[in-house]
Amino acid sequence: MSTMLLLNGPNLGILGRREPEIYGTDTLADIEQAVANEVSGQGCRVLSLQRESEGDPVSAVHEHGPDSVGAVVNPGALMIAGWSRRDALASYEHPWIEVHLSNVWAREQFRHESIIAPLASGVVVGLGVFGYRLAARALLYVTGAVR
Ligand code: DQA
Fold this sequence. Notes:
This protein is α/β, with parallel strands linked by helices. The chain contains six helices and five strands. The chain binds 1,3,4-trihydroxy-5-OXO-cyclohexanecarboxylic acid.
């Protein structure tokens, strides 16, 4: 069975009670379940890692990256200036897709640029939890797990 990484950055562990008018009321556990449901029929399991600091996600990519086939990544605010995470993703040898629950381009100016987006296979923004599901499904195609 292949492993898909689900990487969530700072402040995404408190989804459900974090600014629900922006991020909705689904929790990270709900997202994990939705992504797992999306890929389980394709012989793929999901390894979910959520970290608050910048260094921890870097270690997660180093530690679990080699055994995975692809990743769905919501960097949170590390999209703006998480350079070490950006470099960790640059060294990741499998496809990955960047996801944001909210439409970052409809929000404050500082959220309009992602330093990791140029490295991603694709980017999904503004579709809430459904965006994670779309990204996971797209990854199955990108990685060749389904045709
Ligand atoms: C977010 C958008 C980011 O700007 C913000 O810092 C987050 C959540 C989203 O999923 O919409 O933490 O990545």
